[in-house]
Every structure is written in structure tokens, then in C-alpha cells.
Design a protein that fits this description.
Helix content of chain A: over 70%
CATH architecture of the largest domain in chain A: Orthogonal Bundle
Largest interface: A-B, 45 and 45 residues
Oligomer: homodimer
Order of helices and strands of chain A: HHHHHHHHH
Number of helices of chain A: 9
CATH topology of the largest domain in chain A: Tetracycline Repressor, domain 2
Shape of chain A: elongated
């Protein structure tokens, strides 16, 4: 019974682990079940499809990430300092993954966005909501930075926030391609350029 | 005999077409052969593996892209104007793909970089060379822009060129995620911010 009660969680965790480095299409249900130690017949008791499972994996991943985002962006420090803490944290994640697994795995959300946007509408829709939420969080901290006089008012916009997120995803792509997390060291100085700060 | 002599080219073309929208892992050799109208048994006469085929597809794609890059970057115009022509051309590609296929398919090279960097070392290595070549081309035009006084000398660097390429790839990711090529309209103003121009 203990095993049954956690099979769903094990499937979510196994899929998250495998998908971070391998993406969606190369994973089969059989492999996910083997990693989770769940009988293949049970899979469809918990999830109607690999796509439905993936949406839940994405949700769980973003819940964890969002806690980090909120932790980084909260506090009494000036807004730009909090934004820097957020972006430095993203660089740290790539560094730690390289140290533990040997590879820069990139961002699960960005990986799936490029792999699945033209193929899996349900996953794409959820990823779009999450990226919109990220852009809104950055735009919020930019508005605070502008109020503090640290960023020109005409840079405290949704468009600038989106460019910062684009810069993050592009740098993560190049870090993954080179399997070199130090590529991310360039993120903050270039984010400052985008902010005109 | 005519058919035999072009089977290789048909396999390359079919794979390029399928891979641009679908990525690598979701494609099987059988599907590629069906699209190319080539018997599956012949596939391994031409390519030792799907990975080997993919490296050739990437090469062919980049040869085509490079011709566009060189066309955009050549000419008597000021360097920044030529760089803008290059980036506007990238936005046009996404717009045209949306018009013809209904979806923003993104950049084959960026798609494969995120999907395969941790999985297919041969493809990864070739993609790394191509992105290095892109960064060098942008760095070259930034050096010209600096000589013309259009960009501060301390911005005419490899790091800035890499940040511009990261911005391109990040914006393409967000355009693909939203299936909205107008996201790319933001590319040039943000590239100018990165250049301090």
C-alpha cells in the first residue's frame, strides 16, 4: 500500500529527472515506469497520456522554481540587487548540474518550449503561461527599480522584461551547447545593458 | 537510375523538412524514408546512422543560412545597417514560416542545440562550431561598427557578439512558444541596447 500511494509521485519525479537531460520525445513510458519502479500497466491509471504527465511535471518543476524566484526577489535590498540575485541563482543551477551530473542540462521549460511548441498544444499552453508569469515577475521588479531611480522609466516595461528572459534562455542554450556553465557569467552584465542601468 | 542518384539528396531534404518542425528524437528512420520515397533498406547505404544524417542536414542548413548571412553582411552600407539587415532577415524567416506552415518553427540549429547537446556528441560538436562561426561573424561586423564610431570600442567584443546571438535564440524561443513571429520585432531595439549604440 505504501508503494501504491507513492507510485504517482515516483512517476512524476522519474519523468522530471529523465526529461531535464533527455527531453520529451526520446523518453518512452516503459523507461519512465522502469525508473520509477512502477508497473507499466499502472501508468495509465495515474496519467491519461505522456502529454498529461508532462504538464504535471512542468507544473511541479515551476512550483519549485517559483519558490526560488520569490525567495530571490523578496527582501529589503534595492530592486536591481534582488534581480541580480535571481539571475545569479540561474547561473548557479547550471554550475551545480554540471558538477553533479557532468552536463549542463539547461532549463527544463526552455528545452520543452523549443522541442514541443509545434507538437504538443497542452504542454505549449502551460509553458506559455509560465513564461508570461516569469516576464511579469521581472517587469514587477523593473518597476520597483525605476521607482528607485536605478533604471530609466522607459526601460521598466514588459518588452524589456521579455528581453531579459530571452537573454537568460539564449545564454542557457549556449552554456548547454558548450557544456560550460561559465557562459552564464556574462548574463548579468548584459542584462544591465538591456536595462540601460 | 535517376531515382537512385538522388535518393541521398531526397533523404537529406526530407529530414531537414521534418526536423525543422519536429526535432530529432520524434523522427524515425522509417518516417524519413517514407517522406523521401526511399526504401528503408537503402538508408544505411547512404548514412551510417540517424546521427550521421543529422550532422549532414545541419551542414546543409548552415550552408544555406551562411549564404544569407554573407549576403546581409556584405555591401557598402554602414556596419550597423548591415547587422540590422541580418537580424531583420531572421525575423522575416519566422514570419514566412508562420505564413506557409501555420507555425513558427524556430531555428533548426537552436532547436537541435537544446534537444541534443547532452545526447548526441557528434551533432553537438558541429553545432558548437557553427554557433562559434556565427559569433565570429557578428564580432567582425561589430569591429567595423566600432571603427565607424557607431559602437563603443569596449562593446566590439566576442562577449557582446555572443550576447546578441543569445538574444536572437531567446527571442526565437519565445516567438516559437507563442507561435507569434511579431515577438521578433523586439530583436533589433534590444540588440542596440546590448551594443550600447
Amino acid at each position: 500500500m505504501g508503494r501504491t500511494s507513492t507510485a504517482r509521485e515516483r512517476l512524476l519525479e522519474a519523468t522530471g529527472d529523465l526529461m531535464r537531460s533527455r527531453g520529451y520525445s526520446s523518453l518512452g513510458v516503459a523507461e519512465i515506469c522502469a525508473r520509477a519502479d512502477v508497473k507499466k500497466g499502472s501508468f495509465y491509471h495515474f496519467f491519461e497520456s505522456k502529454q498529461a504527465l508532462t504538464v504535471e511535471v512542468v507544473d511541479a518543476y515551476w512550483r519549485g522554481e517559483l519558490a526560488c524566484w520569490n525567495g530571490a526577489l523578496a527582501g529589503p535590498e534595492p530592486a536591481l540587487e534582488r534581480l541580480r540575485r535571481l539571475l545569479d541563482g540561474m547561473a548557479d543551477v547550471q554550475r551545480r548540474t554540471k558538477e553533479t551530473s557532468g552536463t549542463v542540462d539547461g532549463c527544463l521549460l526552455g528545452n520543452l518550449a523549443l522541442e514541443l511548441s509545434t507538437q504538443e498544444p497542452g504542454v505549449r499552453a502551460r509553458l506559455e503561461e509560465i513564461f508570461d508569469e516569469q516576464i511579469a515577475l521581472v517587469a514587477g521588479v523593473l518597476a520597483e527599480a525605476a521607482a528607485e531611480g536605478a533604471v530609466p522609466a522607459d526601460r521598466a516595461t514588459h518588452a524589456t522584461a521579455r528581453a531579459v528572459i530571452a537573454q537568460v534562455e539564449g545564454m542557457v542554450l549556449l552554456a548547454k551547447l558548450k557544456n560550460d556553465p561559465t557562459v552564464m557569467d556574462d548574463l548579468w552584465p548584459h542584462a544591465l545593458m538591456l536595462l540601460g542601468a
